[in-house]
Amino acid sequence: MKFTRIFTATAAAGVMALAMSSAAHAVTLNMMNGSEPGSIDPQKASGDWENRIIGDYLEGLVAEDTKADAIPGQAESWDISDDGLTYTFHLRDGIKWTDGQPVLASDFVFAFKRLFDPATASDYAYLQYPIKGGSEIAEGQTVTDADFGVQAPDDKTVVITLEGPTPFFLQALTHYTAYPLPEHVLKEFGDDWTNVEHIVANGPFKITEWVPGSYIKSVKNADYYDAANVKIDEVNYFVQDDLAAAFNRYRAGEYDILTDLPGDLQQSVTDTMPGEGHFTPFLGIYYYVINQEKKPFDDVEVRKALSMAINRDVIGPDVLGTGELPAYGWVPEGTANYEGVAPYVPEWASLPYEEKVKQAAAIMAAKGYTPENPLTLQLKYNTNDNHQRVAVAIASMWEQIGVKAELFNSETAVHYDALRAGDYDVGRAGWLLDYSDPSNTLDLLATGVMQGGAMNWGNNYGRYSNPDYDALVKQAAAEPDLAKRATLLGQAEKLGMDEFAALPIYWYISANVVKPTITGFEDNAKDIHRTRWLAKSE
């Protein structure tokens, strides 16, 4: 679902006032949510700005608590077989969609089948590939209903069988790709089921309005099983890519929560708004992808030179002013199930920056590129003050090695469409771990799957492909011994980073700003904060 949006500042402010005034007596949460959602269909979404909305109106078998840990959701309990391959979930009594229809076990079966269906072309389907038959269906193979790993023996029981023991599976089920879908609604309206006039919910909130380019509104779902403990009556998720303008609106009282902030304002917030800034490390990586289907970017030496010339040590403290730590590897330190694997750091990382530039320039000169005869490339990023700062800085660094970068920014949905289509040279991307396991980042670099005669690269935007890398990831997925599994994944990380499958830049720090009137907002490793846990005092 895409929209063209043209709003003047006055018009946007007027729409905001209308949204806020509609709830004079209700407890209303006004959140700066970032970009325009590309989709609120859980199988077609891809960003955290969409996740915040989807995770409020839909709920899976398991949900997330304030620490983003897995807790019972639509399932009140579950059993796990001794071999770790079979999970049996028992649905709660009385759960239903907001049109009054019951949430059935078959809604989960239907949802997983649609997720894996090549026709859906879900970029995130691979997150659920541990489920028996999932990857085969995605590749176009025939898997009978009886052999599929998600079964509904009755209306209140969901049985999921895995390909192999998966230590993070319950965490994977908190992701929106594991949410149920209202089969009866999709059969009537197809992909239009997320239109406001058709959409139904089974989570704590229900979407009631979508004003393109301005906001989405959700209201409390009175039929939610835990509605008595939901303190917010309605939520406005405002579209706002201009971070400086968002901060001004926050200070004016128009926003209760900011989900991002210009880097140069973080210290000021810390100093002048005690307790409102939430700036903490979490499991995520900021990186650049290089289109390896284009020359000369298919040359690993060119990718190496581009990486060496980035002065990561100054990005966090100087360019952004927020202290993000430099990243050279692909798996954030502290990720679960990765014990015994040392953080990846290339040998050249310890060289003085001047020496890195010298070596990178020599590589480029050997390829025929110098400051007098530069390699011209386009560097794309989604519109955001911080992304612009980083892009300008890196473009300047690359000039030293005979690379001229032309900067091009676009709104988030357009930007990621370009990355998926391969319509770029170098592009900005970011990844927030969906669950604490190294596979969640390492799977990003696996070769895509053929669907309908074309390769679906999923979130592997750089289109890196190495059979040895794929084999290591696949072998790790089948390894029940966690220590051996970690070793295999560590080998995969080293291989991918040695070949510059992508260019890590820094490890993320959350940048949330929360009004003192909001309680229940707890920092966590996934930077996920569901509205059901929040409260607001006047």
Your description of this structure?
With 538 residues, this protein is α+β, with helices and mostly antiparallel strands. Helix content is 29%, strand content 21%. The protein contains 16 helices and 22 strands. The chain has a 7-stranded mixed sheet with strand order 8-9-10-1-11-20-12, sandwiched between helices. The radius of gyration is 23 Å and the shape is globular.
Write the layout of secondary structure elements.
Layout: H1 9-21, E1 28-34, H2 48-57, E2 62-64, E3 70-72, E4 75-80, E5 86-91, H3 105-116, H4 134-138, E6 150-154, E7 157-161, H5 169-172, H6 183-189, E8 205-211, E9 215-220, E10 234-239, H7 243-251, E11 257-258, H8 266-272, E12 277-278, E13 281-290, H9 300-308, H10 312-320, H11 353-366, E14 375-382, H12 385-399, E15 403-410, H13 412-421, E16 426-432, H14 439-442, E17 449-451, E18 454-456, H15 467-477, H16 482-498, E19 503-509, E20 512-514, E21 518-519, E22 535-536
Helix pairs in contact: 9-11, 15-16
In short:
This protein has 538 residues and is an alpha+beta fold. 29% of the residues lie in helices and 21% in strands.
Q: Which shape, going by the Cα principal axes?
A: globular
- Rg (C-alpha, Å): 23 Å
Q: What is the number of E strands?
A: 22
Low-confidence stretches: 1-15
The end-to-end span amounts to 36 Å
**Content-based structural category:** alpha+beta
Task: Report the biggest beta sheet as strand number plus sense, adding barrel if it closes.
Answer: 7 strands, mixed
Provide the residue-averaged pLDDT: 93
Count of discrete alpha- or pi-helical segments spanning 4 or more residues: 16
* Strand order within the widest beta sheet: 8-9-10-1-11-20-12
